[in-house]
Amino acid sequence: MDNRPIGIFDSGVGGLTVFSELIKALPNEDMIYLGDTKQFPYGNKSKDTIIELTKRNTEFLIKKDVKAVVIACGTATSQALDSVCDIYNVPVIGIIKPTVTSLNNEKPKRVGVMATTGTIRSKTWQTEIKKYMPDTEIINQACPLLAQMAEEGWIDNDVARLTIREYVKVFKERPVEKLILGCTHYPLFMKTIEEELGTGTEIIDTGKKVGNYLKEYLKNEQKEANRKKQANYEFFLTDMESQFLNVAKNILQRDIEIKKARMHI
Amino acid sequence: MDNRPIGIFDSGVGGLTVFSELIKALPNEDMIYLGDTKQFPYGNKSKDTIIELTKRNTEFLIKKDVKAVVIACGTATSQALDSVCDIYNVPVIGIIKPTVTSLNNEKPKRVGVMATTGTIRSKTWQTEIKKYMPDTEIINQACPLLAQMAEEGWIDNDVARLTIREYVKVFKERPVEKLILGCTHYPLFMKTIEEELGTGTEIIDTGKKVGNYLKEYLKNEQKEANRKKQANYEFFLTDMESQFLNVAKNILQRDIEIKKARMHI
Question: Is A149's Cβ below 8 Å from some Cβ in B?
Fold first, then answer.
């Protein structure tokens, strides 16, 4: 039994798609969410910068006494998880391993990955999928702009649709059984992606996979919270002037209160 | 006579539209360009962050022994110039005053401003225009996403066109005599903006105005360079992994060499 909260971070509002799945899978757990809106977007930053920011965010959450850190950001998972997973005394969990291991039973022949430029460049999804499923073919599509559109709340308009139409072209030419949304902002566009892609492909929201993985982990380690009161959620942002509250309301279907996370740039 | 270079900075590649006008207006001057690609985009960061980054960039250029610093970034000009213009022993010039003073002869009745969210929120264009032309009406349009599209090289495609169509709607409903491109990335979309806007409006590229202003300033202060050799240009980026080189080639019509500017995040 461990009543400490779970820490979650993302570059902005995208990690809330993971957060919303975590609170479904783990309704008794307290959570602390950190959105690094000051440094958003992560998608086109270099690996060194992403590692530096990931360490800083992880340490911010560890100082809040969390029992686990979830990197609810595809870019930070793909480029920095390896560099931070062994250096802290709490487990640090990304979005890639929980997703890939969940696909392992089905061994799909062809898998698509939509992600930021940095994530695609890192080839982390590819490496991780090949580790478990060496015969699976992977088709990658970098999608700069989508995370930014999500952050601005441009989720359901013609520009988002046209951008997505451009990005999914490759998966219409070479159909995939599973399409992984490798950036946590992209589930916000789920409806449009489904419509533009057509039928025959299962779209994978990594948040659900992380929720199942973390539930299993806490159970195995006997670290589940044990309390009767309602779970408590705290939200910190590094920069307050963003569309965070509006997009958050859309995702979580409730009003939330945000606090300023003070960090050096 | 002063043979020291002129320093120019922007959050990314947009300031090159100013740079390209400066080298036309001042062909004998050496220039040092700094693109803060690591922190791009500035447009949705808070005022405090913009001031912090502007100081850091200005000090980087001053350490390179420049005789003047041009803030070739609308967001940094609008939110940080006031805080930095008096604290260094070299002049710091933004894009707003040179543009506004150049319009003063014509005293247009209605002026439009397209800029980042941060710039529009700061009301700096409005305040500066009203100072010289109290009877001029100003129509503002925040354009998140456009700078990001420019940075990705999405300059001439349907997504850019649809985004611009959305942003210029207000200027079709309430026509303006002059439309100021208040972010230095936007001249990259000049053709599309012209086409979507239709005739009757003069579109103002601030780079040209800054070129004229700086030429006049150097002449008055007798700080013009005096040399026969070809001018020398240096380009620094805070993060090397961006589309900078591709977009730069498009703007400058030549290949350039870039160096890494080492700074703490």
Answer: yes
8 A C-beta contact, residue A90 and residue A62 = yes
- Interatomic CA distance for residues B112 and B181, integer angstroms: 9
Other beta carbons within 10 Å of B63: 9
What is the value of pTM for the model shown? 0.82
Half-sphere exposure of B4 (CA within 13 A, CB side): 16
Contact A171, A141 (CB under 8 A): yes
Q: Dump the DSSP string for B163-212.
A: HHHHHHHHHHHS--SEEEE-STTGGGGHHHHHHHH-SS-EEEEHHHHHHH
- Contact between residue B121 and residue B182 where contact means Cβ atoms under 8 Å apart: no
Of B182, B185, B143, nearest to B35 by C-alpha is B185
Task: Give B230's DSSP letter.
Answer: P
Residue spans in chain B of domains classed CATH 3.40.50.1860: 6-94+208-260, 97-206
Residue pLDDT tens, chain A, 265 long: 999 999 999 999 999 999 999 999 999 999 999 999 988 889 878 888 899 999 999 999 999 999 999 999 999 999 999 999 999 999 999 999 999 999 998 999 999 999 998 899 999 999 999 999 999 999 999 998 899 899 888 898 999 999 999 999 999 999 999 999 999 999 999 999 999 999 889 999 999 999 999 999 999 999 999 877 789 999 999 988 667 888 888 888 888 999 999 886 5
The CATH code of the domain at A6-94+208-260 is 3.40.50.1860
Provide CATH code, domain B97-206: 3.40.50.1860
| From A66, A113, A181, A183, the catalytic residue | A183
Smallest CA–CA distance from A159 into chain B, residue: B159
Nearest by CB: B46 against A52, A53, A240: A240
Is A144 close to B148, i.e. CB distance below 8 A? yes
Cβ distance B138 to B230 under 8 Å?
no
Using a CB-CB distance cutoff of 8 angstroms, which residues of chain B are in contact with residue A118? 241
Identify the three-state secondary structure at position A264.
Answer: coil
For chain B positions 56-85, those within 8 Å of chain A (CB to CB) are none
End-to-end CA distance of chain A: 37
Contact between B44 and A166 using a beta-carbon 8 Å cutoff: no
CA angle B115, B213, B146 (to 5 degrees): 20
**Phi, psi (degrees; rounded to nearest 5) at A87:** -100, -5
Rg of chain B over Cα atoms, rounded to whole angstroms, equals: 17
Read off the tokens for B139: 């129509």
In this predicted complex, what is the ipTM?
A: 0.70
